[in-house]
Structures are given as structure tokens and as C-alpha cells.
Amino acid sequence: MMRLKKWARELAIFIVVLAAFSWGMDQWRKPQPPEISHLPDITLVNGQTVSLAALSAEKPLLIYFWATWCGVCKLTSPMVEELHKDGVNVLSIAIRSGDDERLMRGMAAKGLTFPVVNDQLGRLGAEWDISATPTFVILNKGSMVSSTSGWSSRWGIKMRMWWAGV
């Protein structure tokens, strides 16, 4: 019994240290979004023009910065697709992932249908100060309310979206 208590204590300490490290990394890699009200409308690969302020006016918007060449994105993109299919307000920005045709062909092969902006030259990523892919940014009423980078779970993102809408 004493040994079990020791392991439980060690596990609790590990979880606290891991959470603190994760929070610290998120703060260090936190994007610096441009002033949303001054951000020009952006055009999706399908030709539709959208406003980030308008998309986040009614309910929180998940902006998913990713890349076709990103190993972790191969794990997170299907999760973002599930969120999109569940009705979560999603917009993705593919950073330096080739031309539109190549990007769409790759997304189709993986069954990805979420809205995407092709940031072929990395300008939007640089404007937002994105230092790691994937990066998840949540906007509510035109303001960034949350961000995280690296792998994140579906429930972790859903909780962040719920919290942003409260």
C-alpha cells in the first residue's frame, strides 16, 4: 500500500511538471496575431473570400496553422476534420505546402474537407508569428483568446473552444 502511494505521488508530480512545461512552451511559442480589424479578408483555395472578424463574431473560430510536410500535422489534421464535421467553426491555413492543386490533391487523398487558405509563401504564418506547426489559435469576436502548438487532443481543442465561448 505504501508503494502505491509513493507511485501515485510521483505520478502527480510528473503530471504537474508536464502541465507546467506545456504551459511554458505555449507561452514561449504564442503567436502574435495582427490586429484583426485591420487584417484584410483572406481567400480560401476554393476562391471564397472570408473575414476572420466576421467568422468569429457569432461563435469562436478555430484557426489551424499546419503544413503538408509537418509530421505532427499528419496526426492532428484528421482530428481537425472530425471537429469540422461536428460543426466546429474551423479555418485552416496551410503553410508552404505547394500550389493550390497539389494542396487540394493531398487533402483529398487524406479525406480532409475543412476550409483551407494556401499560405504558399508563408506570409500569413509570418504575419501571425507562427513558430511551430501545428498551431491552434482560437478567436472570439475578432480577438485571440487561446493558442497552443504541437499535438493536441480532440477533447483538448473542444474544451478550449467551449471555454472561449463562455
Automatic annotation (TrEMBL):
Taxonomy, superkingdom: Bacteria
The EC number(s) this enzyme carries: 1.-.-.-
Keywords: Oxidoreductase
Residue stretches making up the Thioredoxin domain: 27-166
Record's keyword annotation contains Hydrolase: no
GO molecular function, one term: oxidoreductase activity
InterPro entries documented for this protein: Redoxin, Thioredoxin-like_sf, Thioredoxin_domain, Thioredoxin_ResA/DsbE_sf
Pfam families: Redoxin
Cited SUPFAM superfamilies: Thioredoxin-like
Protein name per its UniProtKB record: ScsD family copper-sensitivity suppressor
Organism field: Obesumbacterium proteus ATCC 12841
Source taxonomy: Bacteria, Pseudomonadati, Pseudomonadota, Gammaproteobacteria, Enterobacterales
